[in-house]
Amino acid sequence: MKDNLKTKAQLIQEIEQLRDRINKLQTAGNPNSDKKEPSDQNHLNQVEITDSKKAAEALAYKLMMLDNILRTATDVAIATTDMDLRITYYNPMAEHIFGYTAEEVIGKTVMEIHMKENVSPDRLERAIDIVRQTGEYKYSLVQETDNGPRHLNSRVSSILNDDGDMVGFCLFSRDVTEKVLSDQILEDNIAMMNSSQSLAHIGSWEHDLITGDLIWSDEVYRIFGEEPQAFKATYEDFLEFIHPEDRDLVNEAYTGSVRDDRDSYDVEHRIIRRESGEIRIVHEQCEHHRDSSGNINRSIGFVEDVTERKAVEMKLYDSERMYRLVTENSVHGMYRVNADGIL
Q1: DSSP H stretches of helix in 141-246
Q2: 104-127, pLDDT tens digit by residue?
Q3: Listed residue (100, 42, 92) closest to 69, CA to CA
Q4: Helix, strand, coil content of the chain in percent (nearest 5)
Q5: pTM of the entire structure?
Q6: Which long-range contacts (CB under 8 A, 24 or more apart) does 68-71 make?
Q7: In the chain, which end has fewer C-beta atoms inside a 10 angstrom radius, N or C?
Q8: DSSP letters spanning 240-275
């Protein structure tokens, strides 16, 4: 876009130069002029006039197209200034975002507009210094509007002539409010998911079979005894956490389900936490997703820490087993009554 804006200024200058050249040639070739030219020279002048007119028309067309492109840019505000920061161009999207018409601002300096908006002059000076040093300056801005905050991502860049000298500045501003709000909703949903998973001791994971990428939620890390997102997990890392006696079973459950083109798998196994050596029992469920050709390309699963539940189940089992042993081997009769003494 910076090159386009430079070209626009060049086109205007070149058109004016061509018009001057055409006028001079027409005067030189005019039979009514005081100075008479040889017929061959007149012919050459007429050819040059024709070529110059065609070039001028081509440049005018390019200028019209460039202006239309800049004016119809519906997602980016564009404004340009000269080296004195006097505004020279201001497209309709700039009018919409900043609330001023082109007629109101063209010819005025950026400082005059900033004074109306109570913008600190230090910010402008800092931005211009950075553009002079690096060629561009990026910043984000939040505007307060009647419809709520408007989030803008902006960039100020230099405009250069053919010799590489800076001749002005260009501002590009894009309204990113929808993206900011979407990102915030996504962050809130992730935070809510992590909180829910932490309470339920259930983590989620996703494995891309094409790239090999494995993503764990925070709770998966906690279940495995690690700090959330402490490292980028891989399938090999996952296998290392599994109890050696269960490792082949789990690997076969996953790879076998992919190999046999099944939609899911379900497995229960032990893991060993690296720091403490503690053994935990987890229950895993996985569903495979397919591409447009029906091939498995992604796996999404859940892992639940069932250690405490298994301990309770084991105690209940032991209690029931003991009760059966007592009742089946007792030489005395046994009966049970409720609180009212009824059998």
Answers
A1: 177-200, 218-223, 235-241
A2: 999 999 888 877 777 778 888 888
A3: 92
A4: 50, 25, 25
A5: 0.46
A6: 69/4, 70/4, 70/5, 70/8
A7: C
A8: HHB-TTTHHHHHHHHHHHHHTT-SEEEEEEEEE-TT
